[in-house]
Amino acid sequence: MTEPLLRVSNLCKSYGALKVTHDVSLTVAPGQIHAIIGPNGAGKTTLIAQLSGQLRPDSGQVIYAGQDITGLDMAARVRRGLARSFQLTTLLPSFSALENVALAVQAREGSSFRFFGRAAREAGLNDQAMACLADVGIADRSHRLAGALSHGEKRQLELAVALAARPRLLLLDEPLAGTGHDEAAQLVRLFAGLKERVTMVLIEHDMDAVFQLADTVSVLVYGKIVASGDPAQVRADPRVRAAYLGEEGAV
Question: How much is the pTM?
């Protein structure tokens, strides 16, 4: 049996009396897309923050690639191959698409930022950055300012920045948020194509995209996992339908 790439055990995070994640346990198999869904306020983004190292849990354990990374910060996790794409884009709008990705390559290689802004002029960084832009389908936008890209192109650029870290595991926090139908469809195709290379944990409200992409779906409600399984099992689970009733509609 294949060892999970990510194993989360009894993860908890509270703010005062409010339990945002409560005894969360799940496993993510290599080469799969594992979706985490749930109503607004379920604790999904807080969970992703704990997995990425942005937020430290109060208790519980995060095992990645066989190593306990619970106490590691975000930068240390990125160096081990665990990267995050944010719910809101975190790009440098006055830099070109190529420069945004080249700086991410530079950071991965441990370079200092004394030459901040000149990264894309270095051939080695430039070549790697262009390859990432090609992977996400926007190589032809390489010299366009990030701030001038469409919303969907910014999502693609953000993904290219994440891929520049050469992750084994990519955490995606609502990557389709704010995209139009055509842009969303393009991103779904992109994620499906990347699955052979990168394992993904996906938080997403677009249920059509979730059930199209995910190999495994876990449902988070009030900080607890109430169901987990393949998409067909989860779609038929009465607890899932009850959780979404009146908010997301039938799943």
Answer: 0.87
